[in-house]
Amino acid sequence: MKLDERKKKILSSVVEDYIASAEPVGSKTLVEKYKLNYSSATIRNEMKILEDEGYLEQVHISSGRVPSTKGYRYYVDNLMKDKNLSMLDINYIDNTITGYGDIGKLLEQAADVVSKILLRPTVLTLKSSDLLEHIKIVKISEKLLLVVIMSQNGTVKDCIAKLTDSIPDERIEELSEVLDRNLLGTPLENLHIALNKMIEKDLQKFSNILGEISESVKYELNKERKKLSANVESILDLPEFSDVEKAKNFVNILSTKEIIDDTLLSIKDENLGIIIGSENQELLLKDYSIITLNVGDKDKTVGKLSVIGPKRMDYSKTVATLKYINHKFKNLLPTESKNNKEMK
Amino acid sequence: MKLDERKKKILSSVVEDYIASAEPVGSKTLVEKYKLNYSSATIRNEMKILEDEGYLEQVHISSGRVPSTKGYRYYVDNLMKDKNLSMLDINYIDNTITGYGDIGKLLEQAADVVSKILLRPTVLTLKSSDLLEHIKIVKISEKLLLVVIMSQNGTVKDCIAKLTDSIPDERIEELSEVLDRNLLGTPLENLHIALNKMIEKDLQKFSNILGEISESVKYELNKERKKLSANVESILDLPEFSDVEKAKNFVNILSTKEIIDDTLLSIKDENLGIIIGSENQELLLKDYSIITLNVGDKDKTVGKLSVIGPKRMDYSKTVATLKYINHKFKNLLPTESKNNKEMK
DNA sequence: ATTAGCACTCGGATGTTTTAAGTGCTAAAG
DNA sequence: CTTTAGCACTTAAAACATCCGAGTGCTAAT
Prior knowledge:
The structure is a homodimer. By secondary structure, chain A is α+β, with helices and mostly antiparallel strands. Chain A is built from 13 helices and ten strands. Chain A has helices at residues 5-21, 27-33, 40-52, 69-79, 87-96, 103-118, 169-183, 191-201, 207-225, 244-255, 257-265, 315-332, 337-340, and strands at 56-58, 65-67, 122-126, 132-141, 144-151, 156-162, 228-230, 272-275, 288-296, 301-310. In chain A, the strands form three sheets. A five-stranded antiparallel sheet of chain A has the order 7-3-10-9-8, with helices on one face. The first copy, chain A, starts with a helix and ends with a helix. Chain A binds a DNA duplex through residues 24, 26-28, 38-42, 44-45, 47-48, 58-64.
């Protein structure tokens, strides 16, 4: 159904007022706060129609209106205006994401700053289908090795392997080069298996040390696959969670990996995905919205940032923030061919 | 004042019941649940005395008793029995703290597992007065360096430095060795300054690259100094925080660095410190208790693990858990002289 | 020294009344 | 035909009132 201008104005006013106030919006508020040149009665009639069409809802029969999922969707698709970030927020982002550290760390910083600006938990999902670009073993003390792993999207991870027997420097270098030559393109999640396989193949002489490296790598990479949820506490400030049971419920959903995993998986590779309320496959998420940014370029994304919270969410500001983050990352990401190819 | 056996028994029963139930404990409960062979009237008389002496409190005139700070203190000092950890908990700890990774990461794992077992937030404070043992620069691609920093207590940190100009391998090695030779013993918090000073001294030729390394090091080390607070959400399950305002309040205290910093600083170098309620200097913490473990040996500690929560806390289990953690760390910590001296 | 018994206190649960915000509808006005 | 004034009606939430039970302190008897 096409909405006429007045209905559009009313709908967007209801959405924006509700986003700001968390209170159901009544006809009088609407007339007073937004310059609608009609009487409250007229607005009431219009709101009734918008409700019949499914854009608005009443929490009870004599209450003001609240946007429905359909209403938010219409707002996001047709009515929402681009918002500019405040200088404050831009500075905050620029000062936090400084460009030191590898992409994994940059993404963590991004998740953190996004959650602070938007006052919503933010889930970071590192792209897991990542392939090994380079591996390097560095001796840092007699019985300690540092294993440096660089993946094809530029993430650098490292871990310590403790040795039971010491081993001469040149053997380490030899091992490092053999591994680097043979393991190119290995999916990171299988790296520890590939390392173990190397023992059987041609590296029996490194049997012990390889086993130890493998264990350490396995631990580090599996750990890293875990998602980071930044700023979960922020929900306590939302009126939606003034009842602690609801807060607990939401925290539980957030920490149930399967729910978040499945949902985020369902987001296609579009750059910015918005799932509102009952659009979620998962029933438990029917009152929440998720806005996900696939960080990076269309063809090559490095991870997902997902802002998650009650449907009542500042969609406009969230989109603006995420777009700015992505813009920033495009500048920060290594221009592939240039930097990565030299690691030996 | 010396308490007779019966009073001791009553006090410890009140404490333990209240710890378990979060409800004020009445004379009848006490007689029934704990094998006190006296009538409720007798118990009431004794409780009155215990209240007059300041060990117990009433939340209102006709309610059961709740331990006061003094009561908890007496319990902790005199009545509390050593508790054995369940096999479940021991296994959980053993499986989580696996010994891969450097001490910083091990401590993070420890904070995490402690908070999960005790269902309380746990703050990890890394020992900040740490000195440089070794620094090593590794080239990982044409314009990326990995800076590995090993401190004297065994923590390994590393960060990426991005270069504007590439630099030949042998120069890197030279630089790495010069730095390692000259910076031994530098406090980590000043490392970036020391690096910059090196430019003025004898390393003008490395001017650019040193600047870039310094920036990166500065960022990484300052970031790491931040405390980690594990499992803040756990408080939502406590009846104390059924009012969300109180939860918010506590979360705010936890995230106000100064409060926690100052308080933790006040804990002497004893291995295990317990601060109960109003024993805290900080007024805001008067309803909370903090149990802190200085991880490591008396002479050489590597960090602090602090379990924080309402005064109603399972002191016995907390102490047992922390002791086990410390025991574990003593085994994991490098035996100083052996491992650390080889990094070149 | 202990305890049965009782009057007393008070928080919390339950029920009732009031208030304020907001609606839908009707009928009149534009 | 559209808009609006006016009013009866609905409901959540706040304010107030009542009741109940867990628990106490004290007295007097054991």
